[in-house]
């Protein structure tokens, strides 16, 4: 099982990257909640049900991808010299953690290129989500979330690299679950609450602190793997 610090790092990436996620998914969230049918109870409760369904589908896709990445990594390690393969994957994951920390802190935007690379796959997947629009039921919102969970995102791709070196499908799934839960506060918040939270997460000291912590986790992971080689 991965140490709790790595799950915390994945959650922190999701939380501090929530503003980035809102920028990419905000329009989709609007499409999910715009023109909802009349429902019993308050409008806020009705919208929350749809938002929870959408984000549940999105996180389910993250977890599926994490389990796949973790399983592939474990399978590849068994095909090679297991010990050395695991150490190599841990070094790779640690390096991506450092890059992600630099990205979160705003010091180096190199991971943005991953989103450009993922755009090719997204062009094939995106039309599937249109079948669920306009959204009329929470089940349809869940379906939209399942598709849009594959939206090209450098943050998601980086955590998937961690999952490859996590040691198994369960660990990989839990890493992506931690990341997905971290993105929830901004994407579930509405109106002035969302604006206030996004404003807080945009503060330089918040980004710098989170970026430094994540980069430090990555550096430690690399150091442990190299020392064990």
Features:
229 residues, 81% helix, 0% strand, globular
Topology record:
Blueprint: H1 4-16, H2 18-33, H3 43-79, H4 82-104, H5 112-130, H6 138-148, H7 154-164, H8 169-188, H9 192-202, H10 204-228
Helix pairs in contact: 1-2, 1-8, 1-10, 2-8, 3-4, 3-6, 3-7, 3-8, 4-7, 4-10, 5-6, 7-8
Protein name: Urease accessory protein UreH-like transmembrane domain-containing protein
Organism: Candidatus Competibacter denitrificans Run_A_D11
Keywords: Membrane, Transmembrane, Transmembrane helix
Number of strands: 0
Helix content: over 70%
How far apart are the termini? 20 Å
Oligomer: single chain
Low-confidence stretches: 39-43
Shape: globular
Rounded to an integer in angstroms, the radius of gyration calculated over CA atoms is 18 Å
Keywords: Membrane, Transmembrane, Transmembrane helix
Domain Urease accessory protein UreH-like transmembrane: 9-218
InterPro entries: UreH-like_TM_dom (IPR039447)
Transmembrane segments: 59-81, 87-111, 141-164, 176-201
Task: Summarize this entry quickly.
The protein has one domain (4-228).
Q: Explain this structure to me?
A:
The chain is 81% helix and 0% strand. With 229 residues, it is mainly α. The protein has one domain. Residues 39-43 have low confidence and may be disordered. This is Urease accessory protein UreH-like transmembrane domain-containing protein. Residues 9-218 form the Urease accessory protein UreH-like transmembrane domain.
């Amino acid at each position: 099982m991965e140490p709790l610090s790595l799950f915390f790092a994945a959650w922190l990436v999701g939380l501090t990257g929530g503003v980035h996620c809102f920028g990419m998914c905000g329009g989709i969230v609007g499409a999910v909640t715009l023109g909802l049918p009349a429902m019993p109870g308050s409008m806020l409760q009705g919208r929350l049900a749809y938002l929870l369904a959408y984000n549940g589908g999105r996180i389910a896709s993250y977890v599926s991808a994490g389990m796949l990445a973790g399983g592939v990594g474990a399978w590849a390690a068994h095909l090679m010299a297991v010990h050395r393969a695991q150490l190599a994957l841990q070094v790779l994951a640690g390096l991506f953690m450092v890059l992600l920390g630099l990205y979160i802190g705003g010091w180096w935007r190199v991971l943005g290129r991953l989103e450009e690379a993922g755009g090719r796959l997204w062009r094939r997947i995106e039309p599937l989500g249109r079948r669920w629009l306009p959204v009329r039921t929470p089940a349809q919102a869940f379906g939209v979330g399942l598709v849009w969970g594959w939206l090209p995102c450098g943050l998601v791709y980086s955590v998937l690299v961690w999952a490859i070196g996590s040691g198994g499908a369960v660990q990989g799934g839990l890493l992506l679950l931690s990341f997905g839960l971290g993105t929830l506060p901004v994407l579930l918040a509405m109106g002035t609450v969302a604006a206030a939270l996004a404003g807080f997460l945009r503060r330089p000291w918040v980004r710098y602190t989170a970026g430094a912590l994540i980069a430090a986790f990555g550096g430690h992971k690399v150091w442990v793997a190299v020392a064990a080689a």
